[in-house]
Specification:
The chain has two helices and three strands, in the order αβββα. By secondary structure, the chain is α+β, with helices and mostly antiparallel strands. It is globular, with a radius of gyration of 12 Å.
Length: 74
């Protein structure tokens, strides 16, 4: 099984959403957090107006991360 590069995936998805989404996204970042957070993984979406959303993606595959982001934006 190939290891997924979640940071690169989210970065690539960020580019697509910044360019083509109706949402005014200014930044989207994957954060695997340190060990003190017990393996928590999140994606933070920042919007042009200053609003932000933090999505829990702990244990998600790249496709599941994309699905969680889609749900957060819909």
């Amino acid at each position: 099984m190939m290891s997924e590069n979640k940071r690169a995936f989210v970065s690539t998805l960020e580019t697509a959403l910044v360019l083509y989404s109706r949402e005014m996204i200014s930044k989207m970042e994957y954060d695997p957090h340190n060990e003190a957070w017990s393996g928590l993984e999140t994606v933070e979406i920042r919007f042009a107006g200053g609003h932000r959303k933090v999505i829990n993606v702990t244990g998600d595959s790249c496709i599941a991360i994309m699905h969680d982001i889609w749900e957060a934006l819909s």
